[in-house]
Amino acid sequence: MRQETQGVTETLIKNATEEFLEYGFTKASLRRIAGSSGVSTNSIYTRFKDKEGLFKAIVDDAADGLMNIYLESIQKAKESTNLDQACLEGGQGTNFVLDYVYQHLQEFKLIFCCSAGTEYEDYLDRLGEIEESYYLEFVRKYGQDKMTVDPFFIHVFCRAGWQTIYEVVMHNRTYKEAQSFMDSTVLFNRAGWKAVMGIEK
Fold first, then answer.
1. CA distances from 80 to 13, 62, 168 (A)
2. pLDDT band, residue 146 (cuts 50/70/90)
3. pLDDT, tens digit, 9 for 90 and up, residues 172-183
4. Are residues 5 and 94 located together in one domain of the fold?
5. What's the distance, Cα to Cα, between the start and end of the chain in Å?
6. Which one of 8, 76, 99, 161 counts the least CB within 10 Å of its CB?
7. CA distance readout (Å), 29 to 36, 41, 120, 166, 181
8. Is 2 found in the same domain as 72?
9. Is residue 54 in a domain?
């Protein structure tokens, strides 16, 4: 049996990442990736099955890792015994998410900006759905008596919340810039939620 050429898989991953970042998944070319890697397209099919398999090999671990971090932070917020603690856990969760995204920045540029046509194109929506479920419970738990929040408001707001992560990545903000922006966002959101829930005016 022919021994696999050392480093081919790593080279394919590197060159595929560059290709997907430049062209997006749909317009990316396996022929270009293979050519820049010095192999045939058959080498890609053998290792990754198809173009989506190659994309998945690049981003899947990062996508799963962020999902796990976010679910853990949501669970901690759910287990909070008062509003201030829940807000604190939420702010810490935002920091954990931002840190993780910037530790895997190329992968999340691919997921957020280049994944149309793959299973990851609705990744931000999936995160938004989790957040929406949490905030529906959050409002019921901490809202003032007779104060209601339109579920549609919660739906839109939670999608917009993840849009902020998308924006700092898409606009190539440095980690320091992104951190400052998210700190302001957390303060803004905390005050806003208290206002719509009738806790503070």
1. 42, 28, 29
2. low
3. 999 999 999 999
4. no
5. 73
6. 99
7. 11, 10, 19, 25, 36
8. no
9. no
